[in-house]
Write a structure and sequence with these properties.
binds pyridoxal-5'-phosphate, seven-stranded mixed beta sheet, alpha/beta, Aspartate Aminotransferase, domain 2, 15 strands, three-stranded antiparallel beta sheet, Aspartate Aminotransferase, domain 1, 372 residues, globular
Length: 372
């Protein structure tokens, strides 16, 4: 009997590596509040991700929420509904109105051709998502943002280690928010980071992640608490040593899937983007039932019968979430709607065996029906 296969498996360093890394914490009793591990990891990540500045937080969601707050945004924010619910929640929890732009049917990121028409005199920012590690049209977004004086905050939760034209993905836009959640390509158990330029923004963000405290006797803002602790930072230090190996192994798993599923009629795979180094964080497949002969749901059910659990990233759209019922018109993002009904992400992680990929693909293809 094969063991169950989930969409991902969290990367862990060898136990001894972690034990060695945290030993000093037992000597210093320094557990949190921007200690030495926090600072070591911050410097290492700045370097690895190729960004000018970076701060570490408790998770990717707080990175998004506090970045928007630190920028003092007002009014409307243009974003994508084809993302994890966190992106939209962060906008709404800042008292901002999300305005949903449709996505590109090929790479699933914001469709920049439909972006400009959504800008009003209330628009203050754009929050695009590098979904699945696919890089957004960063140059076009930059051009539009400059033209209208808008801030650009990338949700880079899927894009750890991705580069565009040789530059770290976090160096585009005004800020980029990363997630180091257990399920992501790179994890600190829970964790997140913001990359940005300029010390003014940093001061604002730093205060917000630490209760709005300026010094021992002065509280200057209504801040939250979103500091990364030393144990999480230590996990991050260990996992960073193995990240290139992990991404390389993911690349091989993705290639194995491609060997099976590329050029299958009715099955659309993730595009290979020009000038992009991706991280193979997900393996999305969009199924056209009329051509393939079976639906996304039927394929998922067949896999689940064999204890293989693909996921519907992203169904439903965030604009269709129950908590937002009646607030948004989902017909305004028809491509996102159509993709979300047909997309599934297949299991991908460094330790996934090729034999399992083969098994998954054979099951998948067994549902292909000849239509004449
Ligand atoms: C994971 C994720 C987040 C939230 O990150 P957490 O670290 O889990 O808080 C935000 N946006 C996207 C697209 C994500 O996948």
């Amino acid at each position: 009997m094969n063991k169950p296969i989930y969409v991902t498996e969290s990367s862990l360093p060898p136990f001894e590596d972690f034990a060695d890394e945290i030993r000093s914490i037992w000597e210093t009793h320094r557990l949190t509040n921007m200690g030495p591990k926090h600072e070591q990891l911050r410097a290492a990540l700045k370097d690895y991700l190729g960004v000018e500045e970076m701060d570490l937080l408790t998770n990717g969601h707080m990175a998004l929420e506090l970045t928007m707050q630190a920028m003092n945004l007002r009014g409307e924010v243009i974003t994508t509904p084809f993302t994890f619910i966190s992106t939209t929640h962060a906008i709404v929890r800042n008292g901002l109105d999300p305005v949903f732009c449709d996505i590109d049917p090929d790479d699933f990121t914001l469709d920049t051709e439909k972006l400009e028409e959504l800008i009003t005199d209330r628009t203050t920012a754009i929050v695009p998502v590098h979904v699945y590690g696919n890089v957004c049209k960063v140059e076009e977004i930059d051009r539009i943002a400059k033209k209208y004086g808008l801030k650009v905050i990338y949700d880079a939760a899927h894009a750890f280690g991705c580069t565009y034209k040789g530059k770290g993905i976090g160096s585009y836009g005004d800020a980029s928010c990363f997630s180091f959640h257990a399920t992501k390509v790179y994890n600190t158990v829970e964790g997140g980071a913001v990359s940005f330029r300029g010390l003014d923004f940093w001061r604002s963000l730093y205060k917000l992640k630490n209760f709005g405290i300026r010094d021992e006797e002065t509280v200057v803002g209504v801040g939250a608490n979103a500091k990364m602790n030393e144990l999480c930072a230590a996990m991050g230090i260990c996992n960073l040593r193995r990240i290139d190996e992990d991404i390389n192994r993911r690349k091989k798993v993705a290639a194995r899937y491609r060997d099976w599923l590329e050029n299958v009629p009715g099955v659309k795979l993730n595009p290979i983007q020009q000038d992009v180094k991706t991280n193979y964080s997900y393996f999305p497949v969009v199924v056209n039932e009329k051509v393939f002969g079976s639906s996304r749901n039927e394929i998922m059910e067949e896999l689940a019968r064999h204890q293989i659990y693909a996921r519907k990233y992203f169904y439903p759209l965030t604009s269709e979430a129950q908590c937002y019922e009646g607030m948004f018109d989902v017909d305004q993002t028809p491509v996102a709607r159509s993709v979300s009904k047909r997309v599934m992400t297949l299991p991908i992680y460094p330790s996934l065996a090729f034999e399992d990929v083969d098994r998954i693909c054979k099951m998948f293809l067994s549902l292909q029906k000849k239509i004449d």
